[in-house]
Amino acid sequence: MFISEKEIEVRYAETDQMGVVYHANYVIWLEIGRTKLIQDLGFTYAGLESDGYISPVTNVNINYKSSVKYGETVVVRTWIETHGKLRTTYGYEIVHEDGTVASTATSEHVIVKKDNFRPVSLSKISPDWDAKYREIAKVID
């Protein structure tokens, strides 16, 4: 299984009054991880958008296991959990420097035409990208 990794230095602005990362910032980190995975595979989300497509989130699930605090560095690990005709589910771990898991997550996405939001298969707009996802996905729908 292919896993992309992206290091994140926790900024003060990402924390609450207790110095703990505010929960909504994890969603931003997931996006950073997903973008890095796509780049590591040789594709770009910006390229998808310039071709007239977007990939909205249809579901996100985050399990918080331990706090991340200001001044820490974490690693976002990202992979393809499942990939089907219309949906892709990304899997994530956010890991402390000592290797313990701070959180696990998944996000589900579809690709739609930007102008009408009609779903479209990745295989129709980028067969190479679709083939790469099928190659590395844990499960193919």
From TrEMBL:
<dbReference type="Pfam" id="PF13279">
    <property type="entry name" value="4HBT_2"/>
</dbReference>
<protein>
    <submittedName>
        <fullName>Acyl-CoA thioesterase</fullName>
    </submittedName>
</protein>
<comment type="similarity">
    <text>Belongs to the 4-hydroxybenzoyl-CoA thioesterase family.</text>
</comment>
<dbReference type="InterPro" id="IPR006684">
    <property type="entry name" value="YbgC/YbaW"/>
</dbReference>
<dbReference type="InterPro" id="IPR050563">
    <property type="entry name" value="4-hydroxybenzoyl-CoA_TE"/>
</dbReference>
<dbReference type="GO" id="GO:0047617">
    <property type="term" value="F:fatty acyl-CoA hydrolase activity"/>
</dbReference>
<keyword id="KW-0378">Hydrolase</keyword>
<dbReference type="InterPro" id="IPR029069">
    <property type="entry name" value="HotDog_dom_sf"/>
</dbReference>
